[in-house]
Amino acid sequence: MIGTQTWMAQNLNYTTSGNSWCYSNLATNCTTYGRLYDYATALTACPTGWHLPDTTAWNTLEAYVVGGIATAGTKLKANNSTLWNTNTGTDAYGFSALPGGFYNGTTFGDVGSNGYWWTATPYGATGVYSRYMHDGYAYVNHYTDFQTYGLSARCLKDSP
């Protein structure tokens, strides 16, 4: 529970019939970082009673963190020097963000330095708003990615 929202405390690691991958196709990376999902799969991967959060939900999370978006990355990242290349996380809210990297359909990249998460908010015909946290930066970055990319998914509990 962070403010009025209930977030999953780790990245989703649910095998679906859609497109999802373990980083570098190694099952141990799914265990550590969760799976990477394309956008269409991420939209349907959360269990019943949970959903992929939109940009408004992410904005609410970032605003709740003391210091807002400027320090939210530090306070939401897991405090784990073996997984983050540069450990700048305090995990002050139990979000435990990990640097699961991405998959662009050809190449896996950024594990250990960046975590990327889908929002449920599309951007144009082929894009989607996303969030990412970099190992050396304090903020949460707002970004857009192609719907075909593989990013982490974090589910948010449905409102009662």
Description:
The strands form 4 sheets. Strands 6-7-8 form a 3-stranded antiparallel beta sheet, with helices on one face. A two-stranded antiparallel sheet has the order 1-2. The protein starts with 19 loop residues before the first strand and ends with a strand. The chain has 4 helices and 9 strands, in the order E-H-E-H-E-H-H-E-E-E-E-E-E. It has one domain (20-157). The chain is of the alpha+beta class and 160 residues long. The model has no long low-confidence stretch (mean pLDDT 95).
How is the topology of this model organized?
Layout lengths: L19 E2 L5 H7 L2 E2 L1 H7 L4 E2 L3 H10 L4 H8 L25 E2 L4 E2 L4 E10 L3 E8 L6 E6 L9 E2 L3
Antiparallel strand pairs: 1-2, 3-9, 4-5, 6-7, 7-8
Could you write a compact summary of the structure shown?
The chain is α+β, with helices and mostly antiparallel strands and 160 residues long. It has 4 helices and 9 strands, in the order E-H-E-H-E-H-H-E-E-E-E-E-E.
Top keywords for this entry?
single chain, 160 residues, alpha+beta, three-stranded antiparallel β-sheet, 22% strand
Pattern of helices and strands: EHEHEHHEEEEEE
Strand-residue fraction? 15-25%
Reading side by side through the largest sheet, how are the strands ordered? 6-7-8
Q: Would you count the extended β strands for me?
A: 9
Radius of gyration, whole Å: 14 Å
In whole angstroms, the N-to-C terminal distance is: 14 Å
Low-confidence stretches: none
When the domains are counted, the total is 1
